[in-house]
Design brief:
Number of helices: 6
Strand content: 35-45%
Structural class: alpha+beta
Helix content: 25-40%
Distance between the termini: 27 Å
Radius of gyration: 17 Å
Number of strands: 7
Oligomer: single chain
Shape: globular
Amino acid sequence: MGLYTINKQLINHNGLKFLKLLGTGSRDGFSFIPDFSNYILISTWDDDSNRENFLNKNKIINEMINNSSKRVEIKIDPYSSKGSWNGVDPFKSNSYYKNGKMAVITRARVKFKKLLNFLISTSVAAKSIKTYKGADYYKGIGELPIIEQATLSIWENEGKMKSYAYSNENHLKIISKARKDKWYSEELFVRSNVVSIKEY
């Protein structure tokens, strides 16, 4: 089955606002070598019943599920979103932070001329999250290796996330370099309440 047919079957569903099927990085999650055993599907919906119907009836999704040894479903409620993903912000919301476990999605398109600088600079900073208390999960994800970069991380609470983001020396260096050298042609930063995490 061709990619066009697969994409059409994935996208053509009632209530679906946004969908991305992403690859992941190997080792600790931030390697530029792909992890061919793990994939992430990010989607946003008008209604939760449409999402449930999609998971139960979509042929492509069911084929993926049936060929997986494990599936983890993380339901989130975005409360803060800045930037865009392919020209749109699919995470806009009127919610607010509910003082509990939260998730962060970051996404950026790296300018081709900035790739080498980006790769050298981020390799050290990406490892610093491993030993940080309060980070329950972290994984490098993306649509296109190196150029289309994203991350998914889950935190005990917003305070732990902010402490890492604004006090970790390696992370602060990356933020400063990214702004100064204008690495990205597009970027997005999303904070979400974690509604539920289910393993199947």
